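WARN no homologs supplied; continuing
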Amino acid sequence: MSRASANDTRAYLFLLPWFAGFFCLTTGPTLASLFLSFTSFDLIQAPRWIGAANYVRIATNDVSFIASLKVTFFFVAFAVPLKLGFALAVAMALNKGIRGLPLYRAIFYLPSLLGASVAIAVLWRKLFSGDGLVNKVLALVGIHGPSWISDPDYSIYTLVVLSVWQFGSPMIIFLAGLRQIPHDVYEAASLEGASKRRQFFKITLPLLTPVIFFNAIVQTIDAFKAFTPAFIISEGTGGPVRSTLFYTLYLYQEAFAYFRMGYAAALAWVLVLIIAFFTAVSFITARYWVHYDD
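OK structure emitted
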């Protein structure tokens, strides 16, 4: 055996644990869920092949599916732009060269580590309850706040606020992008008489579009996958009046409340197609606004 062949063999042996995990824990379950999406399966009896019946029901006869899509699209449309805008604003403030930057960066990033946890979702439920801290603060200025999580007109906004509060991850990426913009570009613009506002729209945003594009893709996918806050705040019901019935929560109900595993698998694959569609549209339209060159 030649030395090159021996090196290749050793390399594949080192990669063997990764291959095992990829095929057994990723590819295998993915293909299994695709198969189950064409079956009727309740975890007790063996899967029964029913063809595209699950997908036909999703498309033609599922009111909860439509309701969950509306809630999820509303959440994505509000949470993602607000989170990115707030993250960019904080990143620009930190980019001024303030003292203690590593400390502030760690503090602002911390909610991104804790925001999706059950403990934070429970805390959020306490904050926005009828007698929670938010209403107590509002009462100090004479405002009688509603029970935010129990009112269908406001409950979804509490989840949007929770999502925006987790701005740390895109903020770190924005901060790195801002550090890559040459300072002499701003100096030249200042000499030409450009205001700070004009510099932001003509220099900062165009040069930051690759970072904005990356953050938008990642945060949109994460928003479509949001589950824990809605589950905890609504106690798994998606209430009140389906106002927090995220798509992932509805999928969970079908799988683990009604044990319609085949139908839940079909819902999961529809979600994959929805995310793939939005991602593809983003990449197609990126050529018109994302600038990778000067």
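The radius of gyration is 24 Å.
OK
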